[in-house]
Automatic annotation (TrEMBL), chain A:
CDD domains the UniProt entry points to: TM_PBP2
Transmembrane segments: 37-59, 100-125, 219-245, 265-284
Protein name per its UniProtKB record: ABC transporter permease
Coiled coil: none
Alphabetically ordered keywords of this record: Cell membrane, Membrane, Transmembrane, Transmembrane helix, Transport
Boundaries of every ABC transmembrane type-1 domain copy: 98-288
Keyword Transmembrane: yes
PANTHER family from the UniProt entry: D,D-DIPEPTIDE TRANSPORT SYSTEM PERMEASE PROTEIN DDPC-RELATED, OLIGOPEPTIDE TRANSPORT SYSTEM PERMEASE PROTEIN APPC
Protein's organism: Streptomyces smyrnaeus
Cross-referenced InterPro entries: BP-dependent_transpt_permease, MetI-like, MetI-like_sf, OppC_N
Family membership: Belongs to the binding-protein-dependent transport system permease family.
From TrEMBL, chain B:
Keywords, alphabetical: Cell membrane, Membrane, Transmembrane, Transmembrane helix, Transport
The name this protein goes by in its record: ABC transporter permease
Family annotation (InterPro entries): BPD_transp_1_N, MetI-like, MetI-like_sf
Record-linked SUPFAM superfamilies: MetI-like (SSF161098)
Residue ranges annotated for the ABC transmembrane type-1 domain, each copy included: 97-303
Family that this chain belongs to: Belongs to the binding-protein-dependent transport system permease family.
Membrane topology: Multi-pass membrane protein
CDD domains: TM_PBP2
Automatic annotation (TrEMBL), chain C:
Domain of life, source organism: Bacteria
SUPFAM superfamilies for this protein: P-loop containing nucleoside triphosphate hydrolases
Protein name in UniProt: ABC transporter ATP-binding protein
Taxonomic lineage: Bacteria, Bacillati, Actinomycetota, Actinomycetes, Kitasatosporales
Similarity annotation: Belongs to the ABC transporter superfamily.
InterPro entries: AAA+_ATPase, ABC_Ni/Peptide_Import, ABC_transporter-like_ATP-bd, ABC_transporter-like_CS, Oligopep_ABC_C, P-loop_NTPase
MF (Gene Ontology): ATP binding
Amino acid sequence: MSTVIQPGRTPGTATAPDSAAASGTRLAVRRFLRNRLAVVGLGVVVFFVLFCFVGPLVYSTDQTHTMLHQVNLAPSGAHWLGTDAVGHDELGRLMYGGKVSLIVGLAAGVLATVIGTLWGAAAGYAGGWIDAVMMRVVDAGIAIPALFILLVVSAITTPGLGGLVVILGFVSWLVPSRLVRAETLTLKNRDYILTLRAIGGTHARAITRHILPNSVSTIVVAATFQIADAILLVAYVSYLGLGVQPPATDWGGMLSAGLTAAYSGYWWLILPPGLAIILVVWAFNAIGDGLRDAFDVRGRG
Amino acid sequence: MSTPTYLFRRVLQAAAVILIVTVVVFALLHSLPGGPARGILGPQATAQQIEAFNHEQGLDKPLPVQYLYYLGQLAHGDLGTSYTLNEPVSQLITERLPKTLLLTVLSAIVGLLLAVPLGMWQAVRRNKPVDYVITTLSFIAYSTPVYFLGLILVLVFSQALPWFPSQAPQGHTLGQVLSDPQGLVLPIAAGAASMVAVFSRYMRAATLENLSEDYVRTARAGGSRSRAILWRHVFRNSLTPVVAMLGYYVPVLFGGALVVEQLFNYPGMGLLFWTAAQSSDYPVLLGCVLIIAVATVTGTLIADIVQRIIDPRVKAGRS
Amino acid sequence: MTADQRPAAPAAGPILRLDDLGVVFTTQSGEVPAVRGVSLLVEPGETLALVGESGSGKSTVALAAMGLLADNARATGSATVAGTEVVGAGEAALAGLRGRTVSMVFQEPATALDPLTRVGKQIAEVVRNHREMSAKDAAAEAVELLRRVGIPEPEKRASAYPFQLSGGQRQRVVIAMAIANEPALLIADEPTTALDVTVQAEILDLLRRLAAETGTGVLLVTHNMGVVADFADRVAVMYHGEIVETGPVEDVLLRPSHEYTRRLLAAVPRLSVDGEDLSETPRAAAPPIEAEPVVELDNVSVVFGRGRGAVRALDGVSLTVRHGETLGLVGESGSGKSTASRVALGLITPNEGTVSLFGTDLARTRSRARRALRAGVGVVLQDPVASLDARMTVGECVAEPLRVHRRALSARERQERVAAVLDRVRLSREVARRAPRELSGGQRQRVSLARALVLEPRLLVADEPTSALDVSVQEAVLEVISELQAELGFACLFVSHDLAVVQHFAQRVAVMRAGRVEEQGDTGTTLLRPETDYTRRLLAAVPVPDPVVQRSRRTERLATLAAGRTEATA
């Protein structure tokens, strides 16, 4: 669900005076490491990346053919997490589907951030009526909940993987655009930008040499939250019937496929993908929270 | 800015936003396979029928002309006719919207009532175990897809422990829905969870920021106790920005309602939308999108006006 | 106020006694001692000024005496208020003391009050913290207090929100809260630093009157020697967390014994008042002959906003800065002086009037030509932190104008120019490789100056370049600017709120008020024998760091004011 608001956009800690000698990067790393939830989140993400991309090399399973002789088996020594309705090994499927969830989520999150950054920076720097019109467009985008748009799209077409990324990117760039606009508005009135303009510096120089570099931390933090949201959105997309088509799958697809089975007591079909989604989304949110503390970025709504 | 001027400008802004939404919906209408004709005549229509319809409806005219025509229809409250239910879309929506509003408003109230005290508690106990536990839980609640959460709720509180029904109350009128409050518990819980997560984080941040404000020190220097300062000053100051956030959260609430209604079979607009999507009932889909957008814009407008009332600075234009 | 509600302040003995007070802050980089071995006394009815530069620990001492230190601070030693120990006291004991026996007035009136609570209610809260009183009686008491602190129409103002009041009025409200229960001790932490000089004079008068009326002891924390001379009976000078000198105000300000105090006082710019020898103020001498104008504002008006909310920030302003001279632009906040400097820089386009830079009308130049013209301009702005991009090294910051206007330069030539200009502003060449955040405020302002001078401009616009700096640092920065001006001959538009600084630094001065130029002329004439009432009032409000002179200036000012009032009523 692409929320307009990310959880916990806290200014974090009121930073104590730091020793002047410590370099910016080292300081940021230290602040990040002090946020224990963020460190755990980083660990979780690393684990799932290894699990999904290296896991299949170690634990090889057949995820293409249906094997009707072994459907809905409970977890056992042969199948650690049991099998699903067409006989695929559930643990293997978790790795297989995770790849799609992670890749699509990452790509869509980054795409949304890029679109949002360009739009927000342009609106904020231009100001005046251009800004007003551009932000009304953002308001309009926000006014239509993403899930509704996605459901309409699913009624019209069934996109491929690339199309999915583009669609997700285009429904969720609104939040980062607001954030980057706010940042640009503050930065463009900073004294060093005024000084640059007063001595005859160009707008291009102000944007490329000052505003964008100084927005990097805001953008990185926004991107992290955006990836979390995108992974969650991918899970919804499968539920809405817009996801990748069988035999390919993703965690959301596994989850919605297992929904009906859950009432029959086949818990292993829904708990693993459900927990995987929660853990990974949680982890990206925690990392975003830690990065925000580390960069001392103020994320406003 | 005086209040009438403000209201006028704000409503004008909202109108501009809705106008942009109509452009989006119009564009979607024209990107349908077969265009709007297919949408209105239904999937069984032949190519000849579509062509005849296009000519008859002026759909072979230039797009801007068609858009104006479409706006004219909207102005008359004409959202088209559902071809699966054979009823005017406007009538379907009038029937279903109040129920969705009921569900979302109740979820929002429950969510806020939990989130605000939780967030303040976290701020006061900052970096203590309570803070970490609630933060972790908030992130988990936020990270859980609503349909998964709803499923778990049903499995636990309806199947394992037979406390609440797994179906939302049915019925045509709000009265009928409200006559079965038990049935509303699980849908509201599912709808409120991520709201609690998001707004407890907001309240925590706002409270922390206010606790470090100068006026807190002034109050302490005047002999006020921490608890009194928290409730008399910090609470109100922290709540104002959170109310402003509420406006932005309206679309998320509607998005949640879509899933919750489908999951608990609650006869609101979300369910209507869902079934329409399954049967490619385009007039219903686009009509709902438009109405949801109007509802969102109105919600944001109300939140802004409420904020203006509770924060005198906003009124003076210096917040 | 009845007698039994008065604090149990013993008539005998000091009202505040600090004994070997120490404060240590726990930070990421370890324990940082902020205050060491501070001992001092405040007797009932006397005013002790605690002076020092930023980072000297004076505010920390004040907060420690209230038990208001931040959570990461730890106090040692002893601080007793009216016989009650504050160091290590619990919240209940402190709450009983604060607002009744000891009160505090803070520096920043803009943020010291709860923005969402009516001011009357905030005052009533302090009243009811310590007195059994109905809400209604407390509200009436609050109105009475507002009257005492000189707020007009107190009944009406009691229901105002803080944002509806001016800075001076807000500070009066904070003072009303502080005196609500007639405390035996008032701690004022830079109470007038955020205010304009005329408002500062009024607030100091008010504090003096209230303290005298109730026999309240005052601990005045300030960096401003003029305020000390105006208000204090005794002075304690702090340096690096320790008290280096204590004594009666005449002794410390006129015959300082400690080396640091002498240095500090020497760095304070003094306003020369009528009758004093002017030859001591070197910059005021020799106005240059009719040189060509470098920048010229002709009948410029600027309006911000539209419709009824529009604000006329500048109204028919004409200014000229000539080659080699410095024009000081003075005025209180909101007078339009900064706006005028931004118009001169071409950052704000005037609604009416013309601006010409180096003889060219800015409105008639195309953007490329205008950019080329601006190569001749250097800028130094007020905020040492915001003036430099934290993501660049000092060298890159200084080199930026070269990258804009001298694109043909090789990297080596650029480095050489940067090194040379760093030499000029007396910074070591190594600084070029460091990050701005590693430098002190004074060093950063010199980096800004280096950046402004790297293209050898014909015009330097300096908007409050030293007002965020301590006096000793300010002196050094101003010295560098004037030496380089003598060497390079640029014209300088110098914006400042500090009349003393302008008197020392500028040959000509323009006094601004409410978007208009009130009067302008040679500094020597205008600031010694002003032609307008406004300038006279402005000058009279500036406290001079000499208690004897300041006392007579104050009497004179009050007499003038009283005369003005009778005239007005008559």
